[in-house]
Design a protein that fits this description.
The complex is a heterodimer of chains A (307) and B (338). Chain A is mainly alpha-helical. Chain A has one domain. In chain A, a hairpin with a 2-residue loop joins strand 2 and strand 3. In chain A, helix 5 packs across helix 6. Chain A starts with a helix and ends in a 14-residue tail after the last helix. With 338 residues, chain B is mainly alpha-helical. Chain B has one domain: ABC transporter involved in vitamin B12 uptake, BtuC (Orthogonal Bundle). Chain B has a two-stranded antiparallel sheet. Chain B is globular and about 55 Å long. The mean pLDDT of chain B is 87. Classes of the chains: A mainly alpha (307), B mainly alpha (338). At the A-B interface, helix 3, helix 4, helix 8 and helix 10 of A face helix 6, helix 10, helix 12 and helix 14 of B.
């Protein structure tokens, strides 16, 4: 029983990462119908940016006059990382995706470009920084709360809470604000929207800022929880988060959130009861099964096709 | 007459030249391997093009089917024709390996075609990006299944295929793999081309244009999808079998999502729905990979960068959806791509 509760807590944390990344996928997809396959690598870039920013703030490079204490450094690292990561995301959009969109290229060519951008980020990182893994600095002391045999760290609680907060924030932005309405409108009809006087490019840039800053946040939290960084860390988790977003019904904020947690739960529970090499087998079979039952995902609405 | 014979004669001449050059070691083993990879990549890209280009779906788990073909044909050929630690004495006399090898490859292809059902059956109901996910999931499922079967090496990989090649070379000392890769490349291109340009296969292009309209025009869309997916994954399986026997060693990790990405790149580089396009891009891509090898890790920055720049200037790929004979109509005198 206790181990079950412990596993549920672990699954919540693991699912939070998937959710945070899947939210970024789904935001971009919801507006542009573009699978931004570089998103997982933007998470990786976020983690690396967090590494350099925090090392700088903690005084490891002797570039700032005083070394900050861990808590203050963390409080500064998170917003700085989010800003810098969104710069990366927006520049990808400006350099690679926008010209293609302007030319009216087939949607899948943009997807391939996104894949290539991901490869550049990964291998560019590898070429620049070398293959040695980076150890993320420990910024806050680990506090372990124990209830009976169940133990929770403060970090785990923070990760789960952040995921929920981000979800409510994004849900609010997309459904309640004016810019959210513009985002939904673009996904509904890309050609009619500019006629209504909506600046389509700035809305798209805003979407990328939102999505990439969430990726940056996920990168910081991931690096805090699993403090070893390597250039390929974003690859698998990115693909899996995309799968989670689709199972939830891609383009829907609730769907991405729920899908991330479902994938997290399935993976942790499979590992709890079977050898860990069976993890992908079981989790993907279950996801396939869900998609067979609901071909457009949990929250997805089937689109009627007209001739 | 000219049209009928010029292409077969040219191909035969090409095969003979390469084989003779390889036989007398004018071209070394490295260049031979590159030539073999060109052939294999042509099969991979043109078979994926059948689904992604002609049918307009977005399948990004092609490597899974390559893996099925590679493993099934390697296990069969090692068990049938060689003395192996796991499978024991050869079940058939090794001197028949040169007859059995193409059959073994075909068996691998058939197994991969049935693995293609994993994607084909859900494709009846799901489309577009949801189907993309199913293909990715299928890739992961196949890889993890292979990792968990200990009898065929699991995560360590499987080897021993070189002994099959040696068994063939005992019969006659010729570069067998060049012959087989060449034959199967030509066969798969003919199969795809004849299928797509037949009246029956036009249904696939109809599905790409508009699935609902195709259905109304009495195209049995489910059946067409089933055939397209099975043909595509079956040919990928044959490519996998060839790949395994060229390398002599297979490992589940070499068929992960990155390999699928490579296949995708070749298809979209060549142009969706263009067979000559995917042949050209497979040749270019393989050669580019080898030419940039001295750059080491920078290679994997340079190639995506080149592709992105190419996409900016030619967003429809090298050929678009046209064939070579559409661009150079004079070529129709020698061959007709219809």
């Amino acid at each position: 029983m206790e181990s079950l509760v412990q596993n549920i807590l672990n699954a919540l944390q693991w699912g939070s990462f998937y959710s945070l990344i899947a939210l970024g996928y789904t935001l971009v997809y919801g507006v542009l119908l573009l699978i931004n396959f570089a998103h997982g690598d933007i998470v990786m870039v976020g983690a690396y940016i967090a590494f350099f920013v925090s090392s700088l703030l903690l005084g490891h490079y002797h570039a700032i006059p005083i070394a900050l204490s861990g808590g203050v450094a963390l409080a500064l690292t998170i917003p700085l990382t989010m800003i810098l990561t969104s710069v990366v995301g927006v520049s990808l959009e400006r350099i690679a995706y926008r010209p293609l969109r302007r030319k009216g290229a087939h949607r899948l060519y943009v997807v391939i470009t996104a894949l290539m951008c991901g490869l550049i980020l990964e291998n560019g990182n590898l070429a620049l920084l070398g293959a040695s893994r980076k150890k993320f600095p420990e910024m806050v002391d680990k506090v372990i709360y124990t209830f009976g045999t169940v133990s929770v760290t403060n970090l785990k609680i923070a990760v789960i809470l952040t995921a929920f907060l981000v979800f409510f924030l994004l849900q609010f932005i997309v459904t309640k604000t004016k810019i959210g309405m513009a985002m939904r409108a673009i996904s509904y009809d890309k050609f009619a929207v500019p006629l209504m006087g909506i600046p389509i490019d700035s809305v798209i840039v805003f979407t990328f800022i939102l999505g990439s800053s969430m990726a940056g946040l996920a990168g910081v939290l991931f690096a805090l929880s699993y403090p070893i960084l390597d250039p390929y860390m974003g690859l698998t988790i990115g693909w899996k988060a995309f799968i989670a977003a689709v199972v939830g019904g891609i383009g829907d904020i609730r769907g991405a959130f729920a899908g991330g947690f479902i994938l997290g739960f399935v993976e942790i529970m499979v590992v709890a009861f079977f050898p860990s090499t069976y993890r992908d087998l079981f989790s993907f079979s279950i996801l396939l099964f869900i998609l067979t039952l609901r071909p457009t995902g949990l929250f997805g609405v089937p689109k009627t096709t007209k001739i | 007459m000219k049209q009928k014979l010029s292409v077969p004669v040219a191909l035969l001449a090409l095969l003979m030249t390469v084989m003779v050059l390889a036989q007398y070691e004018v071209i070394d083993l490295y260049i031979q391997t590159i030539i073999l990879f060109v052939g294999i990549n042509i099969i991979i890209s043109s078979s994926l093009n059948l689904v992604n280009g002609h049918m307009g779906e977005f399948s990004c788990g092609h490597a899974g089917f390559i893996a099925v073909g590679a493993y099934v044909s390697s296990v069969l050929s090692v068990a049938l024709f060689t003395q192996d630690r796991v499978f024991g004495a050869p079940l058939l006399p090794p001197q028949y390996a040169f007859i059995g090898f193409p059959l073994v490859l075909l068996a691998g292809g058939i197994a991969a075609a049935f693995a293609g059902l994993l994607v084909a059956l859900p494709s009846f109901k799901t489309r577009g990006d949801y189907l993309a996910i199913i293909t990715i999931a299928a890739n992961y499922i196949i890889i993890t299944l292979i990792i968990n079967i200990d009898k065929i090496g699991g995560a360590r990989g499987f080897m021993g295929m070189k002994r099959v090649i040696f068994a063939m070379e005992d019969v006659a000392e010729i570069p067998w793999m060049i012959l087989w890769v060449f034959l199967f490349t030509i066969l798969s291109i003919i199969a795809i081309r004849r299928f797509v340009s037949s009246t029956y296969g036009k249904g696939i292009i109809a599905i790409q244009q508009d699935e609902v309209a195709a259905e109304i025009m009495s195209v049995n869309t489910n059946k067409m999808k089933l055939i397209a997916f099975m043909l595509s994954s079956g040919l990928a399986g044959i490519a996998g079998g060839l790949y395994a026997h060229v390398i002599g060693y297979v490992n589940p990790k070499s068929f992960d999502i990155l390999k699928s990405t490579e296949a995708l790149v070749m298809v979209y580089l060549g142009g969706m729905g263009s067979i000559t396009g995917s042949i050209l891009s497979a040749v270019l891509f393989t050669l580019l990979l080898e030419l940039l090898r001295p750059l080491q890790i920078i290679k994997w920055v340079a190639i995506p960068l080149l592709l992105i720049i190419l996409m900016q200037f030619r967003p429809e790929g090298i050929m678009g959806n046209r064939e070579l004979s559409d661009i150079f109509p004079r070529l129709k005198k020698f061959y007709r791509f219809k």
